[in-house]
Amino acid sequence: MVQVRKADVTTRIPPHVYFFVSAIFHYLGPAFAVLLFSSVTVLGVAWFRIASAAIVFALWRRPWRTFTGIPRAKRRALLTLGIVLALMNACFYLAIARIPLGTVGAIEFLGPITLAALGTRTPRNTAALILAAGGGWLLADVRFGGQPLGFVFAFANCAFFMLYVILGHRIAQDGGAAGIDRLGAAMLVALVTITPIGISGALPAMTKPLLILAGFGVGVCSSVIPYVSDQLAMARLPRATFALLLSLLPASATLIGIVVLRQVPTLIEATGILLVAGGIALHRESDRRYSVSAAQKSKPEEVRDSSTCYDERAPIDGYLSPEEGNTDI
Question: So what's the pLDDT on residue 223?
Answer without folding.
Answer: 84
